[in-house]
Structure formats: structure tokens, C-alpha cells
Amino acid sequence: MENSDLPIRLIRQETVAQKTLAATFELPGLPYAFAPGQAAVLSLSEGGAPGEGRTLSLASAPAELPLVTFATRTASGSRFKEAISRARPGDEFFLSPPFGEFLLPSGEELVFPLIFLAGGIGITPFRSMLRECGRTLAEKSSGPPVLLTLNRTAEETPYREECRQWNELGVARWVAVETRSAKSGGTPRDELVRRALEEILEGTGMEARLYLAGPPAMVDSLSEILTAAFGFPRERLTVDLFFGYA
Ligand SMILES: Cc1cc2nc3c(=O)[nH]c(=O)nc-3n(C[C@H](O)[C@H](O)[C@H](O)COP(=O)(O)OP(=O)(O)OC[C@H]3O[C@@H](n4cnc5c(N)ncnc54)[C@H](O)[C@@H]3O)c2cc1C
């Protein structure tokens, strides 16, 4: 049991894609600070103490504190995912201190174009960044960040409506790759990704700073395409691996 874990209360749950749940919690009136892109361990309350937990990226912005939101795929049906799906407003959970180095560039680095590649549920750290920064990222770097979301279908794309709004408001330029949609016409996933990346990199150039988040298999195949097919320099890639997903 972690003494530093805070007891938090569930406020609401929302379905943000097929088998994908967002849960919002309220923190007690204690100080809690995190940077967009960081994660924390969310634990079930077992006998009033932190029980089984999972590392989840904070999907809300620091500006939304004392509320914090996490979003997670529930398809595995694990005990943890079942518990969070069945929880009711007011139920107690525990929240660890935040951690992680998946952070936006600061200062001079911010002048380079930004590309965010979200594999499936890997949208969560980017949602925090985009909600926190709004249009300031577009104004400080050279234009709005490009957000590429990679999912099988539109229905499986988390926060799809919010992505559409970011695109409309100039917060981010959104490129959706939905590999099993009718539009993709049976083209293999890697080819769809390669075409999307080609178009993005033509616009930003190889100077871009590229952020990649999601399940390890997705992140690995995306970074492989980037480095092997485009010669994108590894040192400009920052990755957030959601270990625990196949
Ligand atoms: C930095 C980071 C950020 C992440 N962000 C997100 C996110 O925003 N959204 C999201 O959905 N997922 C995120 N994950 C992955 C998340 O931690 C889970 O691994 C994933 O959601 C699968 O959980 P599961 O319960 O469905 O799978 P399971 O197969 O039940 O378990 C997955 C992992 O949890 C471990 N585990 C199993 N049982 C226990 C237990 N009793 N106590 C502790 N660990 C156990 C397993 O060893 C396995 O590694 C992130 C992971 C990391 C490392």
C-alpha cells in the first residue's frame, strides 16, 4: 500500500468509443500537480485502502483539477476493468502521485512542428496536452500539431468527436486512419499508415518533433514505419508505451 495515494471519488463515466470508458473523479482538497502527458496508478479501494491498480495516463488537463479523467479499453474484462465499469458515482478509488517523462517540448524546441501519433487508446496523453494548451500550441510552434489517430473503425476511435472539434477550431490538424472502415477499401494497415505519414511529413518536414503513444505493438510498428520507410531520426521520436496491452 502506498501512503502517498489519495482517496478520490468517482463523479461520472462516459462511453468514448466502443468498449472504451472514460471515468472522471474528484480529488479531495489536497494539492496535486501533474504535467500533460504524465500517468498515475488508479487503484480500486479494497477495505478502504488501495488495492489492485493499473497505470493510466491522465486524459484530462491540469487546468481541470480537482477533476481528473482516465480513459480505458474495457474489452479484456479483467477484474480491474469490470470494477471500473460497474462503479457508481461516489465510489472510492485511489490515485498515486503522477509520473512519467512523456512531456511536451518547452522553450526553443517548441518552434518545430509537432506530430502526435495516437495508437488506439494512446490518445489519452495527447488529450491532456491539447485540452491544456488549446490553440497556444498552434501559435507557439509552427502551426497546429498534427494528430494522427490509428484505430480499426470510427466506432473504436476514442474521443472522435473531440478530435473533430480540435480540427475545426485549429487546435490540432486531425488525420484519422481507420483500417477496417469502408473508406480504407481493404488496403493493409501498414500501407494506410505509410500513406498518411507521407502526407503529414511532406507538410511538416523532417524537423518535426514526433510523439507516439499507445499499446507497445502499435507503437513499435509505427516507429518501424517512420524510421525504416522515411528515415525519420529516432532522436526526434518520443514514445509512451502502454505496457500491459498486447
Ligand atoms: C505509462 C502507461 C500509460 C498507460 N495509459 C493507459 C491509458 O491511458 N489507458 C489504458 O487503457 N491503458 C493504459 N495503460 C495500460 C494499462 O496499465 C493496462 O495495462 C491496460 O489497460 C490493460 O489492462 P487490463 O486490466 O485490461 O489487462 P490485464 O491483462 O488484466 O492486465 C494488464 C497488465 O496488468 C498487470 N496486472 C494484472 N493483474 C494485476 C494486479 N492484480 N495488480 C497489478 N497489475 C496487474 C499484468 O501483469 C499486465 O501487465 C498504460 C500503461 C502505461 C505503462
From TrEMBL:
Q: Which domain of life is it from?
A: Bacteria
- Give the matching InterPro entries: FAD-bd_FR_type, FNR_nucleotide-bd, MRET, OxRdtase_FAD/NAD-bd, Riboflavin_synthase-like_b-brl
Query: FAD-binding FR-type domain spans which residues?
Result: 3-105
Transmembrane domains' residue ranges: none
Q: Which GO terms describe its molecular function?
A: oxidoreductase activity
UniProt-recorded name of the protein: Oxidoreductase FAD/NAD(P)-binding domain protein
Q: List the Pfam families.
A: NAD_binding_1
